[in-house]
Design goal:
Number of helices: 21
Strand order of the largest sheet: 1-3
Order of helices and strands: HHHHEHHHHHHEHEHHEEEHHEEHHHHHH
Strand content: under 5%
Structural class: mainly alpha
Helix content: 40-55%
Shape: globular
Length: 508
Amino acid sequence: MKKYIFKSFCCLALVLSCDKTLDQTNPNTLTPDNFWQTEADATSAIVGAYSPLSTIFYHGRIWSGHEISRSDEIFFQGDFPSATSIFNTNPTDGNFTASFSEMWKVIFRANLVLQNVPDIDMDATLKDNILGEAYFLRALQYFTLVNHWGSVPLVIQPAESLAETQQAPASEAEIWQQIKDDLDAAITLLPSSWDNDNKGRVVKASAAAMLGKSHLFLEEWGDAATQFKRIIDGEFGTFELMDDYGDNFKSTTENNSESIFEIQFDATGAWTAGWGSDVQSTARYNSYEADLSTRSASRMNTWVFELFTRETNIDGDIDPRAFETLVWDYPDAPFFNDRLFADVYEADLAAYALDPTLRMPLQNAKYVDITGAIPAFNTSPNNKRVIRFADVLLMHAEAENEANGPTTDAYTSINRVRARATMPDIPSGLSQADFRQRVRDERVLELCNESHRPLDLKRWGILSSTFLAHPEYRPAVILYQPGRELLPIPELELNTNPNWNTQNEGYN
């Protein structure tokens, strides 16, 4: 995308300069020379940097499918996104390439903000805040890119020539360092909170959480624990777990006290950059059909249900998070629009009763509006929660355990998450290895189907082995080859950049 935007600016320049004998300048047309002038321009520019996050090809639909497809929590079949889920992504896939381009669009716009906003005469505090947002957004994109593609070009200034758009890939170490530098800058510049009119914009805690997460992924355990503890101790404002776990997935309780960063969606339903999300809408149920019906795109894997039922809460009941995460055949289980799960899955349940080796009817419940109040597939206003305080607590427990063993602080963090769900404290006196497994299990119980699991499996070094050991997690043969923990570089990028000519291992 960065290549083609530059070419568009070149074409505009040629048009404006082709006839010097006539004044062909339209004073109402925005150009780089007349745009970066006012505080309003700076605000418009940073809003524009956020906007690709919510498009159809990014978190609005396509990328969300790719992102979650490497999870062993969920079972995919059909054309999309099952190719990614069986380690067979096609480098020429147009939707996949479009998602990749949206990430670069955010980087391009963030770079423009960082280059031009410092020279604008405006409120100094707001200027700092906007620059902090740009640093965060750029770091967030590179976090996604380096984790899913590995080595990519490191573009930190707007291109001023075609050659500058054709950079060679940087090393992963260089990219990680830039991510950490950007997030350090963001923590310094961002506010601790915004007023109600600006809810949803990133804050200091957003950057600290991503910095801690970056350290965690790099196994820099002590640094990770330090960043998470800053958030837990309230250095950047007060964050609390919501009393009702389900409030983390409703449009009526967005940007709440547990939310540290979420992608903002509206319900416009227009085919524009402001397109409402269909990921958090009735479209989820359109794909959760019975195996014996005419369509079956996805289903939860049975081991997730078994994890939820492994232990009971303090009242002797099933973990209450199960009912906000899964839909199965419990008494009067709702499905969608006043239909019951048992009625929709009647044939599947009968077959499963006769042969328990068949796949258990089990579906996702998170983010789904079962009332039918959002009838169109692309008009959900429900935000996608990217970082929750519960995730910070669990990452802190993990980092603290890896750095120092299962300390009191590590126990406090994981048990705080469990207490909200009325689950008992985990046993005291665990070994480091046993505590590690408890944290990994708790991440599934708390964060299932929130797009964390694939990168968790990858950073723990068990992504491929998990699927190879459990072929029942997928409906087709897993086509794993060494290197396919990463996704393929889109062929369009390799064809248009002479300095980027090496495909990721496993896709040649």
